[in-house]
Amino acid sequence: MKKVITYGTFDLFHYGHMKLLERAKNLGDYLIVGLSTDEFNLQKQKKSHHSYEYRKFILETIDFVNEVIPEKNWEQKISDIQKYDIDTFVIGDDWKGKFDFLKEYCEVIYLPRTEGISTTQIKKDMASL
Ligand code: C2G
Predict the structure, then answer these.
(1) pLDDT confidence of residue 88
(2) Whose CA is nearest to atom 10 of ligand 1?
(3) Which pLDDT score is estimated for 22?
(4) Are 70 and 105 in contact (CB under 8 A)?
(5) Could you tell me whether strands 3-8 and 67-71 are parallel, antiparallel, or unpaired per DSSP bridges?
(6) How far apart (Å, rounded) are the C-alpha atoms in residues 63 and 39?
(7) Cα 85 from Cα 21, distance rounded (Å)
(8) What's the average pLDDT block by block, 10 residues per block, for the chain (129 residues)?
(9) Predicted model pTM
């Protein structure tokens, strides 16, 4: 069984997030999502609109997401890859190169982002209504 992991905040869940997760799942048989906690979001200089529990519910309800784990810090990826016996780490190419250090532990794939949509843009559009 080929296991894939990805990480993110997935706030104001949208089409770009779903396309990322769909492509990630198609890279293997079992998809784990490391979901940024509210506390870790602050370290990422992000304040998510929705709480961790809310964002976790959305992801767990997606039938091709097999498991959601908390992403609490930048350092947990290597131990996650070992703990969950991960074959492939995948993330959007806005992170291209940033996680190459994981290549000694698993395959690392950067997928093209979906253009024209982002949580930040949604927040801006809503604010101008
Ligand atoms: N994404 C995408 N297309 C978009 C928007 C987002 O493909 N239009 C992807 C991002 O590249 C990322 C995932 O969707 O792979 C989740 O996006 P964010 O919640 O913004 O993730 P981020 O805050 O970048 O967190 O340790 C890694 C970090 O937790 C990644």
Answers:
(1) 98
(2) 92
(3) 98
(4) no
(5) unpaired
(6) 27
(7) 19
(8) 98 97 98 98 94 98 98 98 98 98 98 95 92
(9) 0.97
Tell me how many degrees the CA angle 80-86-87 measures, rounded to the nearest 5. Answer: 150
Pocket lining: 78 vs ligand 1, CB cutoff 6 Å: no
Determine the Cα–Cα distance for residues 95 and 90; give it in Å rounded to an integer. 10
Instruction: Please give the number of the atom of ligand 1 that sits closest to the Cα of 11.
Output: 19
Name the maximum alpha-carbon separation found in the chain. Answer: 48
The residue whose CA is least distant from atom 16 of ligand 1 is 8
Residues 39, 72 contacting (CB under 8 angstroms)? yes
The single residue listed with the structure tokens 């101008």 is: 128
pLDDT at 51: 98
- Give the 3-state secondary structure percentages of the chain, helix then strand then coil, rounded to 5: 40, 20, 35
Q: Which residue has the tokens 């048989």?
A: 29
